[in-house]
């Protein structure tokens, strides 16, 4: 008799995005003909830049000639791309070797899978609010109990609040795996070097591992802010970094990402090199490599021209964020994020709950956003607006908020 993984039953019902869709559809049924404007989704909207399209085309053309055809590549990624990614890090003062770069088809899947090389009894700490996959992958792996309104039992929540500038204090007790995301989805907050240093020091002292998600690093405009945790001294002993071409290059549908596991990384029962070899083994066993066409596109993203063109596109999204920020501030709403991230995190006016504000924004302004409480208990009373969108849609949504939101 087959039995299921009972941990799936603990998951709190995939509540957020289905519930957004349900309420939006209900509104549309009751208000036929009304156009809703969506600032809810963390997905890119602008076409891939020409130099990267050329790189993707080259990947296709290579497959059509006998001399350049390739089949399976190394599951860790093609050498030139691993080298290019390592160099990208080292330009900012890190010291990453190409052999420490593992190319993949997504940072979401990597961030779900990475916990698999760690012991089941590791205590896990997450920022609250957080990108849901960090929590859910550990629930499925059996590292938590059941959930209630305070979150999952056994999981250590590190609240990110207005008071701490949306970067958490160190966990009180000893934890083993620490998920950090900077620039943060959903709050848009970016950790400073000093803030990351406190976590790196903690991790080295406790032989804990930081799982650092830098999927939005290309949105950092302030040169003082670190784009990678490896800009912090000692981080290569205690941090694994996940990153992706998704948001930087509009690759959300194309699929290309990477994880860095430094050879220097150590755990309580793993000397230098062991975590690196476990992730190598994991990828070799479960994964046959990212698409060769797509990796050719990735090389083009890293080229000089690719960086300029994708940089302009990121700047375009950041301008959207600033349009959203200005519009909300004009209404007297307190906002965070947006300057170095494609998300604006707003405090709901008049102490409305996140879902009350969702309904208000939908009914009065016809704008759909994402309730902060869907990202964790500390997200209650906050709301995420995404800066991914065509300019005219963003402007229409902002002017509808300016004209119609009753505060
Ligand atoms: C979008 C996003 C990613 C990227 O995931 P992919 O699977 O590479 O598309 C990773 N982390 C966070 C926090 C994100 O929002």
State the main characteristics.
407 residues, alpha/beta, Aspartate Aminotransferase, domain 1, Aspartate Aminotransferase, domain 2, 2 domains, four-stranded antiparallel beta sheet, 12 helices, 15 strands, 14% strand, binds pyridoxal-5'-phosphate
Q: Strands across the major sheet, in which order?
A: 2-10-9-8-7-3-6
Largest sheet: 7 strands, mixed
Low-confidence stretches: none
| Count of individual beta strands | 15
Q: Radius of gyration in whole Å, from Cα?
A: 21 Å
Secondary-structure-derived class: alpha/beta
The CATH topology of the largest domain turns out to be Aspartate Aminotransferase, domain 2
Tally of individual domains: 2
CATH homologous superfamily heading of the largest domain: Type I PLP-dependent aspartate aminotransferase-like (Major domain)
CATH class of the largest domain: Alpha Beta
So how many helices? 12
| CATH architecture label name of the largest domain | 3-Layer(aba) Sandwich
Q: Per the principal axes of the C-alpha atoms, what is the gross shape?
A: globular
Order of H and E elements: HEHHEHEHEEEEHEEHEHHHEEHEEEH
Ions, cofactors and other ligands present here are: pyridoxal-5'-phosphate
What does the average pLDDT come to? 97
**Whole-Å distance between the termini?**
58 Å
Question: Strand-residue fraction?
Answer: 5-15%
* Share of helical residues: 25-40%
What report would you give on this structure?
- The structure is a single chain.
- The chain is built from twelve helices and 15 strands.
- The longest helix is centred in the C-terminal third of the chain and has 27 residues, at 304-330.
- The protein is of the alpha/beta class and 407 residues long.
- Helix 2 runs antiparallel to helix 9 (292-302), helix 4 (107-113) runs parallel beside helix 5 (132-140) and helix 10 runs parallel beside helix 12 (391-404).
- The strands form four sheets. A seven-stranded mixed sheet has the order 2-10-9-8-7-3-6, sandwiched between helices. Strands 11-12-15-14 form a four-stranded antiparallel sheet. Strands 1-13 form a two-stranded parallel ribbon.
- It folds into two domains: 6-47 and 306-404, Aspartate Aminotransferase, domain 1, CATH 3.90.1150; 52-303, Aspartate Aminotransferase, domain 2, CATH 3.40.640.10.
- 37% of the residues lie in helices and 14% in strands.
- Strand 11 (335-337) and strand 12 form a beta hairpin.
- Bound molecules: pyridoxal-5'-phosphate.
- Residues 42, 106-108, 131, 181, 185, 213, 215, 244, 246-247, 252, 257 line the site of pyridoxal-5'-phosphate (PLP).
- The site of pyridoxal-5'-phosphate has 14 residues, from helix 4 and helix 7.
């Amino acid at each position: 008799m087959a039995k299921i993984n009972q941990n799936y039953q603990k998951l709190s019902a995939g509540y957020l995005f289905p519930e957004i869709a349900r309420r939006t559809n209900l509104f549309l049924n009751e208000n036929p003909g009304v156009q809703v404007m969506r600032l809810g989704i963390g997905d890119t909207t602008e076409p891939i830049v020409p130099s990267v399209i050329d790189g993707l085309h080259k990947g296709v053309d290579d497959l059509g000639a006998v001399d350049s055809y390739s089949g399976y590549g190394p599951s860790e990624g093609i050498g030139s791309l691993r080298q290019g990614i390592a160099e990208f890090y080292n330009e900012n003062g890190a010291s990453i070797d190409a052999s420490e770069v593992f190319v993949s088809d997504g940072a979401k899947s990597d961030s779900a899978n990475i916990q698999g090389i760690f012991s089941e009894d590791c205590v896990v700490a997450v920022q609250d609010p957080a990108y849901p996959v960090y929590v859910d992958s550990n629930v499925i792996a059996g590292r938590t109990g059941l959930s209630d309104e305070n979150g999952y039992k056994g999981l250590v929540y590190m609240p990110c609040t207005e008071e701490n500038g949306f970067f958490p204090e160190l966990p009180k007790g000893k934890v083993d795996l620490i998920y950090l995301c900077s620039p943060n989805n959903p709050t848009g907050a970016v950790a400073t070097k000093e803030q990351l240093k406190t976590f790196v020091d903690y991790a080295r002292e406790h032989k804990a591992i930081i799982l650092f998600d830098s999927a939005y690093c290309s949105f950092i405009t302030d040169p003082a802010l670190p784009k990678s945790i490896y800009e912090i001294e000692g981080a290569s002993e205690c941090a694994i970094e996940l990153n992706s071409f998704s948001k930087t290059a509009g690759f959300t549908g194309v699929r290309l990402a990477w994880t860095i596991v430094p050879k220097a990384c150590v755990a309580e029962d793993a000397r230098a090199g062991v975590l690196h070899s476990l992730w190598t083994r994991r990828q070799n066993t479960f994964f046959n490599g990212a698409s060769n066409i797509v990796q050719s596109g990735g090389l083009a993203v890293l080229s000089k021209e690719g960086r300029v063109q994708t940089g302009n596109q990121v700047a375009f999204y950041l301008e959207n964020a600033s349009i959203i920020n200005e519009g909300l501030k004009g209404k007297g709403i307190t906002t965070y994020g947006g300057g170095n991230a494609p998300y604006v995190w707003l405090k709901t006016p008049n102490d409305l709950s996140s879902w009350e504000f969702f309904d208000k924004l939908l009914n009065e302004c016809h704008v759909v956003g994402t309730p902060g409480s869907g990202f964790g208990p500390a997200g209650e009373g906050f709301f995420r607006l995404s800066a991914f969108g065509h300019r005219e849609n963003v402007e229409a949504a902002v002017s509808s908020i300016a004209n119609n939101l009753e505060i």
